[in-house]
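2024-03-11 09:14:02 DEBUG pipeline.ingest accepted 1 chain
2024-03-11 09:14:02 DEBUG pipeline.ingest length=104
2024-03-11 09:14:03 DEBUG pipeline.predict start
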Amino acid sequence: MPSNARQLEAKEAINQAMALLQRRWMLRVLWELRGEALTFRALQAACGDISPTVLNQRLAELREADMVHAGDKGYALTPIGAELIVAFEPLSRWALRWRRSAGS
């Protein structure tokens, strides 16, 4: 694949990912699932003020995107969802440094 075609494909892919992840509560749901599987109620409690309707919508979107699956123990990240969490680790470290430097 020529370089321009790869660049266009990468641009389209990142735009698609950002469109999914920028939806309200999407990143929070993914972040709360970074450890063990959570039941719907446990996930809702971990997320705070999210309504059951919105949580259902976000979980459906994440299942459709193959980032989350529903199992016997609740909702959990798929391998591709877990890869995204790994990609967030540098951002998490940066956020801690930023918060400490800002005095928050």
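2024-03-11 09:14:41 DEBUG pipeline.report The chain has a mean pLDDT of 93.
2024-03-11 09:14:41 DEBUG pipeline.predict end
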